[in-house]
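This part of the workshop introduces the protein records we will be handling. A learned vocabulary of local backbone shapes supplies the integers on the structure line. Getting from the letters to the tokens is the skill we practise here. As an example, a complete record with its sequence and its structure tokens follows.
=====
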Amino acid sequence: MLFTEVRGLPVLAADGGGPLGTVTSLTVDVVSGAVSHVRFRDSALGRVGLSGRVGLSGRVGLSGRVGLSGRIGRSGRERAVPWDAVDTVAAGAVRLRPAAPCEGAPRAHHDLLGHRVLLDTGTGHGTVLDVAFDTRTARLLALFTTRGEVLAGRLRGLGDYALVVRAG
């Protein structure tokens, strides 16, 4: 599956309750070459406001609440679950295992999508467009950059400035 296919999927609890939120990104551990966490924004559906204002304005606000006024916000709290807490990832949703621990978003996180890529020789190798990974094992398979495909085994490091990959 591709990272861009996972982004935006609902995150569902194992008990079948409503969505916990929406996937914003996947955290990658470059050393292991695998996804370590699923990051998501709390569901606005869990915070329905009853302000009494009824309208059809369709305005998009930044409050993070869905109210009767029709305003939809984006400021829900970002959370994360370790990959071990994920039961399944499919085209329709990310389903968690029972008693999956939701935690604050992990501190060390760099979204691979849109990240600059450098070869370990210092030469630029474009920007990450997408990443393919195995949904059962979380192992990265390949990165697709503006300059072509990079096999996941070539990853060396990831920081604020760039993703570094082995040349060749």
Summary: DSSP finds one helix and 15 strands in the chain.
